[in-house]
Amino acid sequence: MAYDKEILEAMEKKDDKEFFLETVKKKPMLIEWASDEIKDDKEVILNAVKVDGGALEFASDRLKDDKDVLLEAVEQAGWTCCYASTRLKGDKDVILRATHNDGQVLYFASKELRDDKEVVISAVSNKPIILKYASYRLRSDKDVAITAVSKGKQKVLDYITPNLREDEDIRKLLEN
C-alpha cells in the first residue's frame, strides 16, 4: 500500500504532540495516525475537530464522552454526534447544537430526546423527513407536523399520524 508523504510523517511522529497540534490545524484527519495517547489529548483533538468535526472518529472514547469536544465537533459538522458516547447522545445541548447543522442527527439521539419537542422541531426544521425518527407522541403533535409539512410538503405525510393528515391547517399547507 502506498502512503503519501504526510501520512508517513504522521506515522513516524505518532507520539509527537507538538507535531499534531500544528498538523491537525491544516490536516485534521491525520490524527488517525497518531498514538492512542495523542488521540486522548483534549487540546490536540479540539484543534482537529474545530477544522473537521469528522476527526472525532479517531478521538479516544474518553474524549467522545467530553461535552466540550462534542460541542466543537457538532458545531463544525452536526452529523459527527454519531461518534458521541451514549451519554452525550442523550445530552440536549449537544443534540440541539447538532440539529442546527444537520437534522439527520435525530437518528442518533436518545429515545428521550426523540420525544423532546424542542429537539424534534429543530431537527425537522433542518431536515423534515427525519420526522420518521421522532416519537409517536410528537408525530401526533400539530406544531411538529406543521413545521415538518411546511418544510417538506408531501414527503413527510407518511410520518405524521393519520388524524393530522386530515387537519385543515395541514391541508392548507399542502395546497400552497
Write up what this structure looks like.
- The protein has a domain at 1-89.
- The radius of gyration is 20 Å and the shape is elongated.
- α6 (67-76) runs parallel beside α8 (92-101), α8 (92-101) runs parallel beside α9 (117-126) and α9 packs parallel to α11.
- The longest helix is centred in the C-terminal third of the chain and has 11 residues, at 142-152.
- With 176 residues, the chain is mainly α.
- The termini are far apart.
- The mean pLDDT is 94.
- It contains 13 helices and no strands.
Highlighted features:
mainly alpha, 53% helix, 176 residues
Indicate the topology.
Layout: H1 5-12, H2 17-23, H3 36-39, H4 42-51, H5 61-64, H6 67-76, H7 86-89, H8 92-101, H9 117-126, H10 136-139, H11 142-152, H12 162-165, H13 168-175
Brief summary:
This protein has 176 residues and is mostly helical.
- What is the SS-derived class? mainly alpha
Give helix % range: 40-55%
Shape: elongated
Share of β-strand residues: under 5%
Taking all Cα atoms into account, the compactness measure Rg is 20 Å
Task: Give the SSE string.
Answer: HHHHHHHHHHHHH
